[in-house]
Specification:
Layout (H helix, E strand, L loop, with lengths): L1 E5 L10 E6 L12 H12 L10 E5 L7 E6 L8 H16 L5 E5 L11 H12 L11 H4 L6 E5 L7 H22 L7 H11 L15
Parallel strand pairs: 1-6, 2-4, 2-5, 5-6
Antiparallel strand pairs: 3-4
Length: 219
């Protein structure tokens, strides 16, 4: 999965869904979005179903603008917003992406996040990778799965410059490392033997010299 950081809308490439992270106090589309998408957000909020509460979400099929879908994700009250809340919200969005057959999505952190300055991009990227994680090597493929599209590109749109590209990259590195560790742990013991685990470790850090003494472990 590739991540890109932009400070303006729309992103250079088309996206299948725009995700807005909104709190209870501020439930409005960023003014930088195009007029058609802002109208869609206002119409969705006017229904009174989505109130920005923590864990709440609403999917909207748009009638215009630069994204055919809007996904609203609630973060709760700003004074109670913590890093873990934002990380879980990103994971929630990633899980919902999985059912939409998207190749590309854009995320906008349209929320105040006191105390998280400099960590918003990092937290969103990490949560996205962990929430979208799936281990499939031993699953049988069927016709339906053959038509499934995996999310390949995520653009973080940050007109307010609440995040940074460097922060986002830190989250990508941490998220990918955790997913790699999950992969290793999910393989059965007869596949992920001690020797193979050591070889995987050596491949992950090729700049570090490791002596792998397989016979000493009885493998």
């Amino acid at each position: 999965m590739k991540f890109a950081y932009h400070t303006s809308w729309p992103p250079p490439e088309p996206v299948g869904c725009l995700v807005l992270f909104l709190g209870e106090e501020r439930r409005a589309a960023p003014p930088e979005l195009d007029a058609a998408l802002r109208r869609e957000v206002r119409a969705a909020l006017a229904l009174g179903v989505f109130r920005g509460k923590r864990g709440q979400s609403q999917l909207v099929l748009t009638r215009g603008g630069a994204a055919p879908r809007l996904l609203l994700i609630g973060l709760g009250k700003a004074d109670a917003l913590e890093r873990e809340t934002l990380r879980r919200a990103a994971g929630q969005a990633a899980k919902q992406h999985a059912g939409l057959n998207l190749a590309a999505a854009a995320w906008v952190p349209a929320c105040a996040a006191p105390g998280l300055e400099g960590r918003i991009g990092e937290t969103l990227a990490e949560g996205m990778l962990l929430g979208g994680y799936a281990f499939r090597p031993y699953k049988k493929k069927n016709a339906e799965a053959g038509n499934k599209v995996d999310l390949a590109d995520v653009a973080l749109i940050d007109p307010a410059r609440a995040a940074t590209a460097a922060s986002m990259e830190r989250g990508v590195v941490r998220g990918e490392a955790i997913c790699r560790a999950r992969d290793l742990g999910h393989h059965p013991g007869n596949v992920m033997t001690p020797l193979r685990l050591a070889e995987e470790a050596a491949g992950a850090v090729p700049w570090v010299h490791l002596d792998i003494a397989g016979t000493a472990w009885g493998v």
